[in-house]
Amino acid sequence: MGRGVVPSLADIVVNKYKLRADVRSVHISGMGCSAGVISLEVARNLLQAAPRGARALMVSTESTSLINYTGKNRAMLLPAALFHMGAAAVLLSTSSSKSRFRLTHIVRTVTAAQDRVYQCAYQEEDDVGEMGINLSKELVAVAGDTLHTNILGIGSLVLPP
């Protein structure tokens, strides 16, 4: 069944509020905090094909209890100190008259094709078989490079030439 929670949060919401069968529900997991931006993009894309007045609720949660490491490897203990639980939600609409804000741009920077990026936060077993997240010493540099690339992408969309 994998590591995901069954039923998914999306299914729990649909069941709790007895949503209609034509409601589209998407569950994205295993992406960490980047799932929020990915979910926002999915919701926006669904609304682009929806009729006027359609709405999309995007709920993003971060549950660090899934990476509860009990071993002694320092690199694998660090995620518990850095990452915490949290949640956010946003209601998107195709109706501009009922909206407070306008979503104009979503910029995602995908860098996982580079090995140093791909391996900077990696789930694996330690020397005694305890599962955890291993953070590479490259993490700060990788995060800085990715943020720089992302800011350049956003800047070209919102700043004057």
Keywords:
alpha+beta; 3-ktacl-CoA_syn; 161 residues; FAE1_typ3_polyketide_synth
Could you please describe the fold and organization of this structure?
With 161 residues, the chain is an alpha+beta fold. The protein has helices at 9-16, 34-48, 74-82, 115-118, 139-158, and strands at residues 55-62, 86-93, 121-125, 131-135. The chain has 5 helices and 4 strands.
Order of helices and strands: HHEHEHEEH
The Rg value, from CA coordinates, equals 19 Å
Q: Please give the oligomerization state of what you see.
A: single chain
Total domain count: 1
Question: How much helix is in the residues?
Answer: 25-40%
* Number of beta strands: 4
Residue windows where pLDDT falls under 50 for at least 5 positions: none
Shape from CA axes?
Answer: flat
- How much β-strand is present in the residues? 15-25%
Q: Alpha-carbon distance between the termini?
A: 50 Å
Give the integer mean of the pLDDT values. Answer: 89
Q: Spatial order of the strands in the main sheet?
A: 1-2
Major sheet: size, sense and barrel closure? 2 strands, antiparallel
Offer a concise description of the structure.
By secondary structure, the protein is of the alpha+beta class.
